[in-house]
Design brief:
Layout: E1 3-4, E2 7-8, H1 9-40, H2 47-65, H3 69-90, H4 100-122, E3 138-140, E4 145-147, H5 148-170, H6 172-182, H7 184-189, H8 194-220, H9 228-241, H10 246-266, H11 274-285
Antiparallel strand pairs: 1-2, 3-4
Helix pairs in contact: 1-5, 1-8, 1-9, 1-10, 2-3, 2-4, 2-8, 3-8, 5-6, 9-10, 9-11
Length: about 300
């Protein structure tokens, strides 16, 4: 074992790994928020509750239907996305022409209701969800021990994030989505059903939160508070990266996870506030965020 800046290498790389894992969830969740805000102009404060809903859905599928992690990884985002579509059709579609505050208040209320229902039935303690057998154990890299599941989470979340960026920024479907938010009348003239596209976009963003919930279940356990504990940090990530910026959400999510991990090594007292200090500095220098569009 060797030391880096007076810190044992295993401790340093262990915290960097923890930071990358946290950054993976920051990136995935902020990506869903960025998609919803960028395309619908809705600040979705229910995103943390939908992330929690994804974890609980995976838990229910395993407990009552025997569906394993890999099936849940495919099915849960669809289920949670459908729940999101129902929410959009029942509530959010009436708010698109109003101030952002109305959407924030509505989704904040929905988050409280969803979390309250689950806390009432399942309490505050976490429920265990086991790591899939194929990803059990780990690898000794010499300078650190890498659990297989943690490595999978980092790699898979990066692939999902980049695939989402490519879909929205580099495909014809993504061009239609962006056009529908900027000039819906023109897009309707081409025979495209704009309301349906908006609804599916919200469902897709919520589905990303559900996917993150499935991936988080074996690491953090399944708890009604798991979303509320994370959502404030995720909103800070979105603000730093730039509201509605897809690449900003991805880069900032992973970067802030690493910064948080390094802060825990060299300055543990500041680890809980480092992200918010960075947010304040970024907003002073660049109010639109690092990747946001300036007016």
């Amino acid at each position: 074992m060797f030391e880096i800046f007076g810190v044992p290498s295993q401790a340093l790389f262990g915290q960097l790994l923890l930071g990358l894992i946290n950054g993976s969830f920051y990136a995935l969740l902020s990506l869903g928020l960025a998609v919803i805000f960028g395309m619908l102009n809705i600040i979705n404060f229910a995103h943390g509750a939908q992330y929690m809903l994804g974890a609980f859905t995976a838990f229910f599928l395993l407990q009552y239907l025997g569906w394993n992690y890999w099936v849940s990884l495919l099915v849960v985002p669809i289920i949670v996305g459908i729940v999101g579509i129902i929410i959009e059709r029942l509530f959010l579609q009436w708010l698109y022409k109003l101030d952002h505050l109305y959407g924030l208040l509505l989704t904040f209320g929905l988050a409280l209701v969803i979390e309250g229902v689950f806390r009432n039935y399942f309490g505050s303690s976490g429920l265990p969800y086991r790591v899939p057998d194929q990803l059990a154990g780990g690898r000794n890299l010499g300078f650190m021990y890498l659990p297989n599941y943690r490595g999978w989470v980092i790699a898979f979340s990066l692939v999902v994030c980049l695939a989402t960026w490519f879909l929205i920024e580099r495909t014809k479907l993504g061009a239609y989505l962006r056009a529908a938010t900027e000039n819906p009348t023109l897009v309707r003239a081409f025979g495209i059903n704009v309301p349906r596209m908006i609804t599916l976009t919200y469902g897709f963003g919520v589905g990303l939160a559900g996917l993150a919930g499935v991936m988080a279940a074996p690491i953090y356990n399944v708890s009604p508070q798991m979303g509320s504990n994370l959502i404030i940090i995720v909103f800070a990530v979105v603000v730093i990266g730039g509201m509605g910026s897809i690449m900003g959400a991805i880069v900032t999510g992973f970067a802030l996870g690493l910064i948080e991990g390094l802060t825990k090594v060299f300055f543990p007292e500041a680890s809980n506030t480092a992200i918010f200090v960075i947010m304040a500095i970024v907003l002073i220098i660049r109010p639109a965020g690092l990747f946001g569009r300036t007016a």
